[in-house]
Design brief:
It contains five helices and twelve strands. Helix content is about 15%, strand content about 30%. It is an alpha+beta fold and about 240 residues long. A seven-stranded antiparallel sheet has the order 3-2-6-9-10-5-4, covered by helices on one side. It has a three-stranded antiparallel sheet with strand order 1-11-12. A two-stranded antiparallel sheet has the order 7-8. A hairpin with a 2-residue loop joins strand 11 and strand 12. It has one domain: Pnp Oxidase, Chain A.
């Protein structure tokens, strides 16, 4: 299949991107409005972009109507600060529910039942149960195309749970239980390897499908349901 990019709508291009750039790490972003209302949202267009100073990037789309900017972006733009919290399997349902499009005046820590933890430099709270968090200040905001915005954030403080911080500044990645994004679903990272793998291991893995943890049909995708939108947001069942 060969698909010319200029023939695609934004939604069609988004489906191809999220289905082929996998697994994507999830920035579970907490922010605060100028009025003091706390917001949480998962952003899976997320990566590291620099080392000294340490920098990360987030790409934010509008809300599901395709026009209104998300509260997360408005808060980051208006206050110049935010926190990236790590998404892990114990928090996976809260991560998913934080993608709902709540009203701007609602405190999403309270709605999601998450504990706030104080940051050292920024005024935004981090998520207490997240094992790793970055306090970030906005470095630049770059408009992309017709609707999207890229935020570069400079990390000014790392919060790492004590048991995860090893000698020589290394993180115990095998103990993280990280969750990543696969199209509109999630993956639990539960294996690790170095190369080369034994030939018999590669042969046994060839052509296999991913194992589902939720007991749904192997071909299921939320993209085929009314609960999904091409904004990165989702909708509670029944809406």
């Amino acid at each position: 299949m060969i698909i010319p990019a200029d023939s695609l709508t934004a939604e069609a291009a988004y489906k191809l991107l999220i289905g082929s750039i996998v697994p994507r790490p999830i920035a579970w972003v907490s922010s605060v409005s100028p009025q003091g209302t706390a917001n949480i949202a998962p952003i899976s267009f997320f990566t590291a972009v620099g080392r000294k100073p340490p920098m990360i990037s987030l790409t934010l789309q509008p809300r599901s109507d395709g026009r209104v900017l998300k509260d997360t972006f408005n808060n980051i733009r208006d206050t110049g600060e935010f926190v990236v919290n790590m998404a892990t399997i114990p928090n996976s349902d809260a991560v998913h529910r934080s993608a709902y499009e709540f009203a701007p005046h609602e405190d999403e820590f309270e709605l999601l039942g998450l504990e706030k933890a104080r940051c050292e430099i920024v005024s935004v709270p981090r998520i207490e149960s997240a094992p790793i968090a970055y306090e970030c200040l906005v470095d630049r905001i770059i408009p992309v195309g017709e609707t999207d915005n890229v935020v570069w954030g400079r990390i000014v403080q790392f919060h790492i749970r004590d048991d995860l911080y090893l000698e020589r500044g290394r993180i115990d990645t095998a103990a993280l239980a990280p969750v990543g994004r696969l199209a509109a679903e999630y993956t639990f990272v539960e294996n690790v390897f170095t190369t080369p793998l034994p030939a018999e291991t590669l042969a046994a893995l060839e052509g296999i499908r991913m194992r589902r943890l939720d007991e749904l049909d192997s071909g299921f995708s939320p993209i085929d349901t009314a609960l999904w939108s091409a904004s990165g947001s989702t909708r509670p069942a029944g809406q």
